[in-house]
């Protein structure tokens, strides 16, 4: 019995070790990636259906790793969050944004959506980090929308609420991202200072698949109307989805139908070509 137990625990320990090492190496890789400039930002235009023009864009981080193998943001953002690197990574993103935006000519009232992690909002320097970024973007007429997930509102509520209220007074817009996919208590929608609700692409996708029956999507839309929040639909990828959402009064659309996320230089051409 004893040797068998020993063998099992040996296997277990070495499994845990190699798992820890792999985890550690991703953390080191993230750090190294920042130092070696392996990150870039892609920008996905957002269509303003009321003014019928580009109303802004969302900044989406990309990691072009040294080996060439790319890794999706869903994976490396989650890793950065669990490894305590999401704040450094977001500050790194801010540097990249400031460098990119210097080359832009944007239409009036252009808003750049930036994804913010829950941990960052709770950090004492959060508001100043955002103000510092704004000081770099505003000479180029780019305004900031903070995209928060429901998770970021739930934790440490009164502190978060104070910060967001103050930032909103200073002209920053606040959006709830991936709405309906988290664990939001609906009462947060009433108490938090919000401007937009981003309808998750999962609900937008039901338009085509569900044959005229989209109860959750319809409920989200009427809820945001009651709360007087503007709506941004994500992942709009067909004319049918566009028509339906437009008919329901959704003001902003983001998705492959209008434009894919693109590198800064491409985005500059894209705006020029459309005369925007
Ligand atoms: P998200 O904030 O919900 O971003 C929208 C995602 O939908 C992006 O995926 C975008 O490329 C994708 N998308 C846009 N239009 C369409 C469409 O028509 N069809 C489909 N199927 N997908 C579409 P991406 O770039 O892979 O990013 C995934 C997630 O990673 C983001 O989801 C966001 O939560 C996170 N993320 C990306 N960049 C950052 C960042 O800089 N900071 C933080 N904290 N999170 C980020
Ligand atoms: Ca987002
Ligand atoms: Ca989203
Ligand atoms: Ca998402």
Automatic annotation (TrEMBL):
One of its GO terms (molecular function) is cyclic-guanylate-specific phosphodiesterase activity. It is a multi-pass membrane protein. One of its GO terms (cellular component) is plasma membrane. It is found in: Cell membrane. It catalyses: 3',3'-c-di-GMP + H2O = 5'-phosphoguanylyl(3'->5')guanosine + H(+). The chain crosses the membrane at residues 1-16. The keyword Translocase does not apply. Keywords: c-di-GMP, Cell membrane, Hydrolase, Membrane, Transmembrane, Transmembrane helix. It comes from the Bacteria. Its EC number is 3.1.4.52. Residues 23-275 form the EAL domain. This is cyclic-guanylate-specific phosphodiesterase. The chain holds residues 248 to 523 of 536 of the full protein.
């Amino acid at each position: 019995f004893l040797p068998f137990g020993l063998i099992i625990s040996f296997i277990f320990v070495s499994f845990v070790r190699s798992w820890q090492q792999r985890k550690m190496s991703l953390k080191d890789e993230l750090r190294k990636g920042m130092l070696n400039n392996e990150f870039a930002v892609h920008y996905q235009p957002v269509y303003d259906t009321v003014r019928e023009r580009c109303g802004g864009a969302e900044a989406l981080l990309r990691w072009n790793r040294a080996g060439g193998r790319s890794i999706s943001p869903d994976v490396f953002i989650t890793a950065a969050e669990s490894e305590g690197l999401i704040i450094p990574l977001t500050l790194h993103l801010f540097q990249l944004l400031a460098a990119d935006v210097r080359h832009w000519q944007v239409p009036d009232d252009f808003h750049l959506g930036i994804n913010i992690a829950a941990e960052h909002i709770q950090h004492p320097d959060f508001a100043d980090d955002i103000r510092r970024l704004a000081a770099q973007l505003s000479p180029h007429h780019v305004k900031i929308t903070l995209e928060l997930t429901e998770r970021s509102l739930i934790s440490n509520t009164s502190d978060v609420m104070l910060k967001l209220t103050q930032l909103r007074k200073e002209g920053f817009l606040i959006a709830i991202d991936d709405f309906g996919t988290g664990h939001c208590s609906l009462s947060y929608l009433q108490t938090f200072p919000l401007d937009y609700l981003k309808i998750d692409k999962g609900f937008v996708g039901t338009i085509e698949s569900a044959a005229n029956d989209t109860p959750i999507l319809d409920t989200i839309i009427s809820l945001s109307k009651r709360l007087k929040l503007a709506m941004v639909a994500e992942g709009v990828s067909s004319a049918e989805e566009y028509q339906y959402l437009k008919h329901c009064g959704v003001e902003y659309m983001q998705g492959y139908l209008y434009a894919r996320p693109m590198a800064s230089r491409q985005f500059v051409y894209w705006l020029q070509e459309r005369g925007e």
